Records
---
Amino acid sequence: MSLEQEPLWYAFVTRPRHEKKVKQYLDLTGIESFLPLQRSLHQWKDRRRWVEAPLFSCYIFSRIPYARRFDVLRAPSVARIVSFNNKPTPVHEQEIDAVKRVLAAPQKLQVVDGIPPGSRVRITSGPLAGLEGVLAEHRGSSYFMIHIEAIGKSILIDASENSLLDLDHPK
């Protein structure tokens, strides 16, 4: 199978607050897609309600052969494919799997832009055991970070709730 026909994960930029509509459209057309959603409790003056919001605002992932990228780009509310040097950049399968595992685990998380400095670590126990990432400091706390390189976003998970093994400085 040629590289153009091999299905890979690509990130697409959507219009703001249109991620779920794009996901629905791609599902109806039979295109494999992944929209990571985070459930949170929202408080208004008169009520509280659980809301599912996209983990990465304005992004959706689709697993397609490179030759079919225009099928996704033609979808309503899709602005562009994430590219570097005018070449669409695939998202690594391991990064997509890591996001799926993180969302399935009952952990507090948040998304930040960029890559905070730190040591590479691996979680050694619990539901996220085996995941590798970076130990990061953010606002005075330690976090386990998974970076999605293609879109320049990182997921931070409270490091105090996990057993970590330092991969940069093994004992």
Note: The mean pLDDT is 86.
---
Amino acid sequence: MTRRLRHEAADRLKTVTPLRWRRKVSRLRLAGRTRSGRFRTLPDALIIGAQRCGTSSLYKYLGRHPNVAPSLRKETEYFTIEHHRGEAWYRAHFPLRWWRRLAELRGRPWLTFEATPDYLFDPRAPQRVRELLPQVKLIVVLRDPVARAVSQYHHNARLGQDKLPLAEALAAEEERLAGADREIIDHPDSRALELRRYSYVARGRYAEQLERWRRLFPPEQIMVVRSADLFDATGDTFGRILEFLGLPRWEPAGFRNHSYTDPSQGGYPEPSPEVTEFLGERLAASNQTLVELLGDEFRWDNAVRS
């Protein structure tokens, strides 16, 4: 079976396998690999966010490159809520070192990576990454934060994690997140459930999140791309990402949107003008700072697409 057919078969299997079963299989595989953790490599690159911006699709595209070995699962969450598990556990998500050595002997570029969207948002992640992976390449995918917030809400609603209507959920965010920042400072191993789940506006304040990473990593290690470019000019954008990572030009058989295991789950109604205005007002200051930081191409048009 060719590489492309294997990937297509894996995608089909994923659509018919319940999430709880997939997670159970992943945990069993990880438990077996942890014993060999010290013989495994660490990642060369991280896709650090943002959530609901296309990281699942980019993980799929990059993971199928012939010179790339993706992590055992997309989101390890090691530098946020799983840090207490230790380095051997984290290494278990990646290939044995001899694969890297074999590529070096053949004179071929080789890379392994993972993608955890919470890394951009969680203030614990930058320093933890810096301590373990000081030379890592970091990829950030950003989407119009109004559209991103609406997408996050509908994702939560589909999973049964938010029972409030959209407008009420947005209005309740400040109260829901009260004290959440203090919690992760006082309790570094906190799972910070409310902060991760109900941060509809907070996650869209990209400028302050990027600045945390830029204080610890030089510009040549960070690439920021627009979600719109990833989906509307996919070939060119993916080519630029490969160049950033030092990988040869290559494209998968197709660039479909992998945001949902089942593509039929992706639709939702347009938000009301009141919701769009509410989000726009609360994100305006951060949006302007982002333009000052990255340039006019990151001036959003507030288009909302699933």
Note: The first strand starts at residue 45 and ends at 49.
